[in-house]
Amino acid sequence: xxxxxxxxxxxxxxxxxxxxxxxxFPTILLLVLGAIPALRTPDPNFGDQRFIDAFMSSLVVTxxxxxxxNKLPATVATYREKGVLRRFSTTPVHPARxxxxxxxxxxxxxxxxxxxxxxxxxxxxxxxxxxxPFWFLVTFLLGMSSLSAIGLLVAAWAPNAxxxxxxxxVVFMLVMFFGGVYLPRFLLPDFLNAxxxxxxxxxEALQQSWLGVAPDPAHLGVLALVTVAAGTVAxxxxxxx
Length: 241
Fold this sequence. Notes:
It comes from Saccharothrix texasensis. This is ABC-2 type transport system permease protein. The chain crosses the membrane at residues 20-39, 51-69, 99-121, 133-158, 164-183. By secondary structure, the protein is mainly α. The chain has one domain (2-237). It contains eleven helices and no strands. The mean pLDDT is 91.
Protein backbone atom coordinates (compact mmCIF):
# COMPACT_ATOMS: atom_id res chain seq x y z
CA UNK A 1 0.00 0.00 0.00
CA UNK A 2 2.83 2.39 0.88
CA UNK A 3 4.50 1.62 -2.45
CA UNK A 4 1.32 2.43 -4.35
CA UNK A 5 0.82 5.69 -2.43
CA UNK A 6 4.45 6.65 -3.05
CA UNK A 7 4.08 5.97 -6.76
CA UNK A 8 0.82 7.90 -7.03
CA UNK A 9 2.38 10.82 -5.15
CA UNK A 10 5.26 10.94 -7.65
CA UNK A 11 2.77 10.88 -10.51
CA UNK A 12 0.86 13.73 -8.86
CA UNK A 13 4.05 15.82 -8.65
CA UNK A 14 4.58 15.27 -12.37
CA UNK A 15 1.39 17.24 -13.10
CA UNK A 16 2.58 20.84 -12.67
CA UNK A 17 -0.82 22.35 -13.36
CA UNK A 18 -2.52 20.31 -10.64
CA UNK A 19 0.26 21.02 -8.13
CA UNK A 20 -0.01 24.74 -8.85
CA UNK A 21 -3.80 24.98 -8.70
CA UNK A 22 -4.49 22.53 -5.88
CA UNK A 23 -1.52 23.27 -3.62
CA UNK A 24 -0.11 26.70 -4.46
CA PHE A 25 -3.00 28.65 -6.01
CA PRO A 26 -4.93 29.36 -2.76
CA THR A 27 -1.83 30.94 -1.21
CA ILE A 28 -1.04 32.86 -4.40
CA LEU A 29 -4.61 34.17 -4.53
CA LEU A 30 -4.37 35.25 -0.89
CA LEU A 31 -1.17 37.20 -1.63
CA VAL A 32 -2.81 38.89 -4.62
CA LEU A 33 -5.95 39.85 -2.67
CA GLY A 34 -3.91 40.91 0.34
CA ALA A 35 -1.95 43.32 -1.81
CA ILE A 36 -5.14 45.42 -2.19
CA PRO A 37 -5.29 47.85 0.76
CA ALA A 38 -9.10 47.94 0.88
CA LEU A 39 -9.22 44.19 1.47
CA ARG A 40 -6.94 44.58 4.47
CA THR A 41 -9.28 47.09 6.12
CA PRO A 42 -11.96 46.02 8.63
CA ASP A 43 -15.39 46.04 7.03
CA PRO A 44 -18.88 45.88 8.64
CA ASN A 45 -19.89 43.33 6.00
CA PHE A 46 -17.52 40.88 7.67
CA GLY A 47 -18.33 41.70 11.28
CA ASP A 48 -15.64 44.39 11.37
CA GLN A 49 -13.09 41.89 10.12
CA ARG A 50 -10.98 42.19 7.01
CA PHE A 51 -12.03 40.62 3.74
CA ILE A 52 -8.93 38.43 3.70
CA ASP A 53 -9.86 37.04 7.14
CA ALA A 54 -13.38 36.13 6.02
CA PHE A 55 -12.16 34.70 2.70
CA MET A 56 -9.89 32.05 4.23
CA SER A 57 -12.59 29.36 4.23
CA SER A 58 -13.24 29.91 0.52
CA LEU A 59 -9.53 29.45 -0.19
CA VAL A 60 -9.69 26.08 1.57
CA VAL A 61 -12.72 25.20 -0.57
CA THR A 62 -10.57 25.87 -3.65
CA UNK A 63 -8.03 23.26 -2.58
CA UNK A 64 -10.64 20.63 -1.75
CA UNK A 65 -12.56 21.23 -4.98
CA UNK A 66 -9.51 20.94 -7.24
CA UNK A 67 -8.35 17.72 -5.59
CA UNK A 68 -11.70 16.00 -5.17
CA UNK A 69 -13.42 17.07 -8.38
CA ASN A 70 -10.66 17.82 -10.90
CA LYS A 71 -7.88 15.38 -10.10
CA LEU A 72 -9.66 12.34 -8.69
CA PRO A 73 -12.39 11.63 -11.31
CA ALA A 74 -10.11 12.30 -14.28
CA THR A 75 -7.30 10.12 -12.91
CA VAL A 76 -9.51 7.17 -12.00
CA ALA A 77 -11.47 7.31 -15.27
CA THR A 78 -8.22 7.48 -17.24
CA TYR A 79 -6.82 4.48 -15.38
CA ARG A 80 -9.95 2.49 -16.23
CA GLU A 81 -9.98 3.62 -19.86
CA LYS A 82 -6.31 2.68 -20.35
CA GLY A 83 -6.75 -0.70 -18.68
CA VAL A 84 -4.67 0.07 -15.60
CA LEU A 85 -7.42 -1.08 -13.23
CA ARG A 86 -8.01 -4.22 -15.28
CA ARG A 87 -4.31 -5.10 -15.10
CA PHE A 88 -4.31 -4.55 -11.34
CA SER A 89 -7.17 -7.03 -11.04
CA THR A 90 -4.90 -9.76 -12.46
CA THR A 91 -2.35 -9.25 -9.68
CA PRO A 92 -2.53 -9.97 -5.94
CA VAL A 93 -3.05 -6.21 -5.45
CA HIS A 94 -6.77 -5.41 -5.63
CA PRO A 95 -7.62 -2.33 -7.77
CA ALA A 96 -9.43 -0.83 -4.78
CA ARG A 97 -6.06 -0.11 -3.25
CA UNK A 98 -5.33 2.19 -6.15
CA UNK A 99 -8.51 4.15 -5.36
CA UNK A 100 -7.56 4.36 -1.68
CA UNK A 101 -4.12 5.60 -2.71
CA UNK A 102 -5.72 8.36 -4.77
CA UNK A 103 -7.71 9.58 -1.77
CA UNK A 104 -4.61 9.44 0.46
CA UNK A 105 -2.57 11.43 -2.06
CA UNK A 106 -5.34 14.02 -2.17
CA UNK A 107 -5.33 14.17 1.62
CA UNK A 108 -1.57 14.71 1.74
CA UNK A 109 -1.74 17.43 -0.92
CA UNK A 110 -4.67 19.09 0.86
CA UNK A 111 -2.85 19.16 4.19
CA UNK A 112 0.24 20.69 2.57
CA UNK A 113 -1.88 23.30 0.80
CA UNK A 114 -3.77 24.35 3.93
CA UNK A 115 -0.60 24.35 6.04
CA UNK A 116 1.14 26.60 3.50
CA UNK A 117 -1.92 28.86 3.39
CA UNK A 118 -2.03 29.12 7.19
CA UNK A 119 1.69 29.89 7.52
CA UNK A 120 1.69 32.56 4.82
CA UNK A 121 -1.55 34.15 6.05
CA UNK A 122 -0.21 34.36 9.60
CA UNK A 123 3.26 35.54 8.63
CA UNK A 124 2.38 38.07 5.94
CA UNK A 125 -1.04 39.38 7.01
CA UNK A 126 -1.30 38.47 10.68
CA UNK A 127 -4.40 36.32 10.10
CA UNK A 128 -5.20 34.15 13.08
CA UNK A 129 -4.79 30.42 12.80
CA UNK A 130 -8.00 28.38 13.21
CA UNK A 131 -9.43 29.17 16.64
CA UNK A 132 -10.99 25.71 16.84
CA PRO A 133 -8.27 23.49 15.29
CA PHE A 134 -10.04 20.26 16.22
CA TRP A 135 -13.32 21.22 14.57
CA PHE A 136 -11.46 22.70 11.62
CA LEU A 137 -9.64 19.39 11.15
CA VAL A 138 -12.90 17.44 11.43
CA THR A 139 -14.60 19.70 8.88
CA PHE A 140 -11.59 19.55 6.57
CA LEU A 141 -11.58 15.73 6.64
CA LEU A 142 -15.34 15.52 6.12
CA GLY A 143 -15.14 18.06 3.31
CA MET A 144 -12.33 16.13 1.64
CA SER A 145 -14.11 12.78 2.03
CA SER A 146 -17.45 14.12 0.75
CA LEU A 147 -15.94 15.64 -2.39
CA SER A 148 -13.79 12.55 -2.94
CA ALA A 149 -16.91 10.37 -2.73
CA ILE A 150 -18.65 12.59 -5.29
CA GLY A 151 -15.54 12.47 -7.47
CA LEU A 152 -15.49 8.67 -7.34
CA LEU A 153 -19.21 8.63 -8.15
CA VAL A 154 -18.53 10.71 -11.27
CA ALA A 155 -15.69 8.38 -12.22
CA ALA A 156 -17.96 5.35 -11.68
CA TRP A 157 -20.75 6.63 -13.90
CA ALA A 158 -18.79 8.40 -16.63
CA PRO A 159 -18.29 6.23 -19.74
CA ASN A 160 -14.78 7.58 -20.38
CA ALA A 161 -12.17 10.03 -19.12
CA UNK A 162 -13.43 12.88 -21.29
CA UNK A 163 -16.95 12.56 -19.92
CA UNK A 164 -15.64 12.30 -16.37
CA UNK A 165 -13.78 15.58 -16.81
CA UNK A 166 -16.86 17.31 -18.21
CA UNK A 167 -19.24 16.05 -15.52
CA UNK A 168 -16.79 16.85 -12.76
CA UNK A 169 -16.31 20.39 -14.10
CA VAL A 170 -20.03 21.11 -13.68
CA VAL A 171 -19.96 19.94 -10.06
CA PHE A 172 -16.69 21.80 -9.51
CA MET A 173 -18.18 25.10 -10.68
CA LEU A 174 -21.20 24.67 -8.40
CA VAL A 175 -18.97 23.92 -5.41
CA MET A 176 -16.81 26.96 -6.13
CA PHE A 177 -19.88 29.17 -6.54
CA PHE A 178 -21.61 28.12 -3.33
CA GLY A 179 -18.26 28.09 -1.56
CA GLY A 180 -17.86 31.83 -2.14
CA VAL A 181 -14.84 31.56 -4.42
CA TYR A 182 -16.32 33.20 -7.53
CA LEU A 183 -18.30 35.74 -5.53
CA PRO A 184 -17.76 36.56 -1.83
CA ARG A 185 -20.56 34.96 0.17
CA PHE A 186 -21.81 38.30 1.53
CA LEU A 187 -22.74 39.24 -2.06
CA LEU A 188 -24.92 36.14 -2.47
CA PRO A 189 -28.61 36.11 -1.48
CA ASP A 190 -29.34 34.68 1.96
CA PHE A 191 -31.07 31.68 0.38
CA LEU A 192 -27.98 30.72 -1.63
CA ASN A 193 -25.79 31.21 1.42
CA ALA A 194 -28.06 28.92 3.42
CA UNK A 195 -27.89 26.25 0.71
CA UNK A 196 -24.13 26.61 0.38
CA UNK A 197 -23.70 26.18 4.13
CA UNK A 198 -24.92 22.58 3.86
CA UNK A 199 -23.23 21.60 0.61
CA UNK A 200 -19.80 19.92 0.49
CA UNK A 201 -17.16 20.77 1.45
CA UNK A 202 -18.80 22.77 4.26
CA UNK A 203 -17.63 26.34 3.74
CA GLU A 204 -19.75 27.63 6.63
CA ALA A 205 -18.32 25.07 9.07
CA LEU A 206 -14.80 25.81 7.84
CA GLN A 207 -15.32 29.54 8.39
CA GLN A 208 -16.90 29.08 11.80
CA SER A 209 -14.14 26.85 13.11
CA TRP A 210 -11.48 29.18 11.69
CA LEU A 211 -13.01 32.29 13.26
CA GLY A 212 -13.73 30.74 16.64
CA VAL A 213 -17.29 29.42 16.54
CA ALA A 214 -18.10 25.72 16.90
CA PRO A 215 -19.64 24.54 13.61
CA ASP A 216 -23.29 23.59 13.38
CA PRO A 217 -23.60 19.80 13.88
CA ALA A 218 -26.18 19.71 11.08
CA HIS A 219 -23.58 20.99 8.60
CA LEU A 220 -21.13 18.28 9.61
CA GLY A 221 -23.90 15.68 9.53
CA VAL A 222 -24.72 16.52 5.92
CA LEU A 223 -21.06 16.15 4.94
CA ALA A 224 -20.93 12.74 6.61
CA LEU A 225 -24.21 11.70 4.94
CA VAL A 226 -22.96 12.74 1.50
CA THR A 227 -19.74 10.80 2.08
CA VAL A 228 -21.59 7.62 3.02
CA ALA A 229 -24.31 7.91 0.37
CA ALA A 230 -22.11 8.91 -2.58
CA GLY A 231 -19.36 6.52 -1.52
CA THR A 232 -21.77 3.58 -1.24
CA VAL A 233 -23.37 4.24 -4.63
CA ALA A 234 -19.94 4.71 -6.22
CA UNK A 235 -18.69 1.43 -4.75
CA UNK A 236 -21.75 -0.51 -5.94
CA UNK A 237 -21.74 0.94 -9.45
CA UNK A 238 -18.01 1.19 -10.07
CA UNK A 239 -16.66 -0.58 -13.14
CA UNK A 240 -13.04 -1.76 -13.16
CA UNK A 241 -12.96 -1.98 -16.95
